[in-house]
Design brief:
The protein has 388 residues and is mainly α. The chain contains 17 helices and 13 strands. 44% of the residues lie in helices and 11% in strands.
Length: 388
């Protein structure tokens, strides 16, 4: 986009690198500073930022709303002046981190508002954690589109062919002597040792070529590639994280589809839409006879409040499930160990899960949908009758 732009005064793309150390307002400040840094070549931007304290002092912490408003207004002005079309945010899962005072959707609301005010497309690039962060509420979900870039799987013929093409394009760019047919014949070895990730494959080849240049060697060999490959423990960690992320996304999509079908299947009937009759009409039966009240002794005087006996004693009890494990599982409902009622736990500010208040379940049949169940080893996730 930058090369195709004929006007040198226009910057079509701005790229931001989110920092894992920043959260909440600090992440927003870092975002603003990086945007303005890339647009400082324009005299109007330099003029408006020369006295901007939040920009000139990156370490400054301010709670003054006026300073933050001025910072945001200058960023919006810069994006419009230089006709920015896209803002790419790499490692965007770090940008989604909130501080203890903010709700989990605060960063999403901020990005949504900024995109609406500037009419600039924001592209968030990150790992599987970003998928869950961006699906926290409907106002953001309806404004965004998911695009997953999966790794190559060695058990899929079409993906294997595409991986060989990617490997060939990398090897053709190597400025050394390369036996291309011999190396391409080892494509499955490249696929397994790079965990099917094209980014890992590219870094691996670049690191090997750089090391060969330093020692004065001129041939790219399997032995050299083996020396600079990831260690087995590193590949094992990458493989586990990749599989976990893929399963989380697939499970979340499948569960969302099932939940949508369940909600659509429970349509509101015409009878439910009919308002209840007035009390004067309800006091008469269909044949016009008045329904008389049964003989009951009314309480007199100040009576002590009677506790409801229908409430389950497990109401409000803490659930020993780590918040990260709960969010990453995709299963949102838990089963009461007393009455087997299914409820979605509440999450406090300190990350503790608690079973909500509920009435005792009257049905005798046990629930079968995906849920958290308390067993002998603690709370476990049950999907299709199998504990995970």
């Amino acid at each position: 986009m930058r090369e195709a732009e004929p006007n040198p005064a226009t910057v079509p793309v701005v790229m931001v690198q989110a920092s894992p150390e920043d959260a909440g307002s600090q992440a927003r400040l870092d975002f603003y500073q990086q945007v303005l840094d890339q647009l400082q070549h324009h005299p109007a931007i330099r003029d408006r930022t020369k006295n901007l304290q939040l920009y000139l002092n990156p370490a400054k912490k301010s709670n003054d709303p006026a300073e933050w408003l001025e910072m945001r207004n200058i960023v919006e002005y810069a994006l419009a002046l230089l006709q920015v079309k896209v803002v790419f945010v790499d490692e965007a899962q770090h940008l989604m981190a909130t501080d203890s005072r903010s709700r989990p959707t605060a960063q999403l609301d901020w990005i949504k508002t900024l995109a609406n005010r500037t009419n600039v497309l924001h592209v968030l690039v990150g790992n599987f954690d970003l998928y869950e962060c961006c699906h926290l509420h409907g106002q953001t979900v309806r404004r965004m589109r998911d695009q997953q870039f999966p790794r190559y799987h060695m058990d899929n013929q079409k993906e294997c062919e595409e991986f060989v093409g990617a490997l060939k394009s990398f090897l053709q760019c190597v400025p050394l002597t390369v036996d291309l047919p011999a190396l391409l014949s080892r494509w499955r070895w490249f696929g397994e040792w790079s965990v099917g990730c094209v980014g890992v494959l590219g870094d691996w080849i670049v690191d090997t070529v750089a090391a060969l240049f330093r020692t004065g060697e001129t041939v790219l060999t399997i032995e050299a590639l083996t020396r600079h490959a990831l260690q087995p423990d590193q590949r094992a960690r990458l493989e586990m994280e990749a599989r976990t992320g893929e399963n989380r996304v697939a499970r979340a999509k499948a569960q969302s589809e099932m939940e949508l079908q369940r909600l659509l299947g429970q349509g509101i009937t015409e009878k439910q839409l009919t308002p209840p009759p007035p009390a004067s009409e309800a006091a008469h039966s269909q044949n016009g006879n008045r329904i008389e009240r049964a003989v009951v002794r009314d309480p007199v005087g100040n009576q002590p409040p009677q506790a409801s006996t229908n409430k389950c004693p497990f109401s409000g009890t803490a659930i020993e499930i780590q918040e990260q494990r709960y969010r990453s599982s995709g299963t949102r409902r838990a089963e009461c160990p007393r009455c087997h009622a299914l409820r979605q736990p509440t999450i406090s500010r300190n990350g503790k899960l608690r079973f909500p208040s509920h009435d005792k379940r009257k049905l005798q049949t046990l629930p079968t949908e995906p849920r958290w169940v308390q067993g002998s080893a603690g709370w476990e996730e049950v999907i299709e009758g199998t504990k995970k």
